[in-house]
Amino acid sequence: MNRRELEQYLHEHIPLSRAMGVEVMKADWNGVTLRAPLAPNINHRETVFGGSASAVAILAAWAILYVRLHQEHVRCRLVIQRNTMTYERPIASTFEASSTIQDSPAWEKFLRTFARKNLARISIAATLSCHEEQVGKFEGDFVALTMKQD
Amino acid sequence: MNRRELEQYLHEHIPLSRAMGVEVMKADWNGVTLRAPLAPNINHRETVFGGSASAVAILAAWAILYVRLHQEHVRCRLVIQRNTMTYERPIASTFEASSTIQDSPAWEKFLRTFARKNLARISIAATLSCHEEQVGKFEGDFVALTMKQD
After folding, report:
1. How many CA atoms are closer than 13 Å to the CA of A29, on its beta-carbon side?
2. What is the C-alpha separation between A45 and A55, in angstroms, rounded?
3. Residue A38: which of A110, A108, A93 has the closest Cα?
4. Are B27 and B67 in contact (CB under 8 A)?
5. I need a labelling partner for A88 at 20 to 30 A (CA). Which of A74, A131, A143, A148 fits?
6. Which domain does B140 fall in, by range?
7. Are the C-beta atoms of A56 and A18 separated by less than 8 Å?
8. How many domains does chain A have?
9. In A, which residues are within 8 Å of B84 by CB distance?
């Protein structure tokens, strides 16, 4: 799966990603970076609406799991369970959300647990940036469930 | 300010609220309830995208402050500082986010602190519901700043 395929998937299946103007800048094993412009995400202060910042961060965090599980040929349903978001600075233009999984043991444990129990939890972090300055951070817990539980 | 005025304000100044189909069902001193349909907020599982759920909750929490400060004739800038969101159940249709401020002393302290320091912080909770069942909860910290700091 390359970044164009991921972008097309997001726009087709999560229409809000299109409404927010989300572009996929990077999507590989090492990380996902999404970009969104100010205009569709603006608020009454002419900065990015917190709900948009949060939604793009959630997408970036979900997408790194989606990309990795696709590469591992693991079929599952991913559900977000909780998240925290910290807004560090107002965002006055195009912004990016970048997720990565630096903790290899946590990833290996997530895969092993899912293989054994058809249920596993992992925490994913993402950072928001604007003009290469960090403007916010996100942390969320996702659960992988077997498709059979649909 | 009535609910139609708040809805018009949101749609004009925060275009994502319009893209999400947000309607204001209630907006008074005691609470704000926003409603959003599934279609513009759907995800790849045909339930509500977590980013939409979170964004509507943020709006509901911000709006109760906006409504109350308007009634108190307090002019200030409101900034979200952090939030947590818990997704308790998948949301498979139209959903609502309701905010309220039950803690009167916290509200009074917020007003007094802002009057004295031109800077005050308050924590606001909101619940998400679908068919009158609770499906998620939100808690966020907002800061009021003097307009002069713009």
Report:
1. 5
2. 19
3. A93
4. yes
5. A143
6. 3-149
7. no
8. 1
9. 82-85
